[in-house]
């Protein structure tokens, strides 16, 4: 979540910088922020719907197997 917030901050600053340096004359510089937002939303969606449930399932499987093994 912290990296997601950082991406939004960098996108906003980069968009503002493009406009202030007059590299982009109109508000089109904020398309950078839009692209960052779309990419970040897609990555967060993938993490919370695919990666996180798979990691939780693997952790619970490891916990259920661990008590069956003996370490001497």
In short:
With 72 residues, the chain is mostly helical. 75% of the residues lie in helices and 0% in strands.
Helical proportion? over 70%
Number of helices: 2
| Number of distinct beta strands | 0
Weakly predicted, low-confidence segments:
none
Please provide the ordered H/E string of secondary-structure elements.
HH
Write up this protein.
By secondary structure, the protein is mainly α. The chain contains two helices and no strands. It has helices at 2-20, 31-65. It is rod-shaped, with a radius of gyration of 21 Å. The model has no long low-confidence stretch (mean pLDDT 82). Helix content is 75%, strand content 0%. α1 (2-20) packs antiparallel against α2 (31-65). It has one domain (7-67).
Structural features:
72 residues; 2 helices; 75% helix; mainly alpha
Draw up the topology in text.
Blueprint: H1 2-20, H2 31-65
Helix pairs in contact: 1-2
């Amino acid at each position: 979540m912290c990296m997601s917030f950082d991406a939004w901050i960098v996108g906003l600053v980069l968009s503002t910088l493009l406009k202030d340096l007059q590299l982009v004359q109109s508000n089109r510089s904020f398309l950078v922020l839009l692209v960052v937002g779309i990419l970040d939303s897609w990555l967060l969606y993938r993490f919370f719907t695919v990666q996180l449930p798979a990691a939780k399932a693997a952790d619970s499987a490891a916990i259920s197997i661990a008590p069956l093994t003996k370490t001497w």
